[in-house]
Amino acid sequence: MTPPSPPTGNEPLAYLTAATAGIRHHTRTTTSSPGGRPATRAQVDALHAHLTALHTLLGRLAEQTRSERPAQSSHFAAARTRLWQAGEHLHDAFHQSPRTPALDPDAPQDDTCQQDIDPTGPPFLTICLRHLRTSTLVRQQTTPADLHSPLHGHARHRTS
Fold this sequence. Notes:
Layout: H1 12-31, H2 41-65, H3 70-96, H4 113-117, H5 127-141, H6 144-148
Helix pairs in contact: 2-3, 2-5, 3-5
């Protein structure tokens, strides 16, 4: 099975379609092995980057549609909040993943964001910087009540 080829056009929809195809391909290859293997830190980091990019896209869509289509904008904002919540869980999962052996055996193995941000630490740990940058935006765009609401953005309709 070969991964999807990148888009050839400059149309944004082509890139979004290619990203979706890439995730589907990764899902098939990840779940096709018997017994499965735990996600690596690199996989969780890449998935967090994808969610963060989707979070940004949904935020822009919510802004662009707010004046003309407020109900649609509200749904985009609710989806953006859900992606932030998923990103929080991925960030936590990243820190629960086993570390790769450090190049320096005397380096501290404390698994905190501060260690991950430290330039003397492992070079591939960008998830904490991305997460901190996004959390700043979330605090500006969302209320704490929205972040903790279990049914944020969902409407209930009568079935009778």
